[in-house]
Design brief:
168 residues; alpha+beta; eight-stranded mixed beta sheet; two-stranded antiparallel ribbon; 2 helices
Length: 168
Amino acid sequence: MSDALQPIGIDIRYMILREAMLDLVNQFPGLLPGETIKFEVLESESGIAMSDNSGAKVYTEDTYVSGNKNQTCRYPFYLVYRAASSAKERQKMSIQEFLEMFGNWLCKEDAVIDGETYRLASYPELSGGRKITRITRDNSYGTEPQENGVQDWVLPVTVEYSNYIKET
């Protein structure tokens, strides 16, 4: 029997998180000047996008006598890096390193970019009683290349947050 925490509901207003995270990922110091991460939009041969995984899930919920609730939630998403002609080993390693540094930075760890060390100081402020408690990521991986040599690289990211719901 698995001890893994299972979702008990959904946070239907998770767009607050999506917008905050899209804004945050666009602040990554490793982006090139003028480079923008878009939501689920990639060019045919290149680009970086953010994509929802499954929306936001509620994992725990405490209800108080007042009717107020405190939820523990997770919002998983993907960063997708698309590159053409990624048959070269050096280019693949460079993409992996970029995504690794991106993940480090999102998780408030050191990210070394062009010899300089960066660290995210704080998570964005959210509205609606939500507060980011931590961000985690898994290892990045490459998907099967397309016939034209274009390949997507994926970094799975999970935002853990609390959601305090005040009874009106």
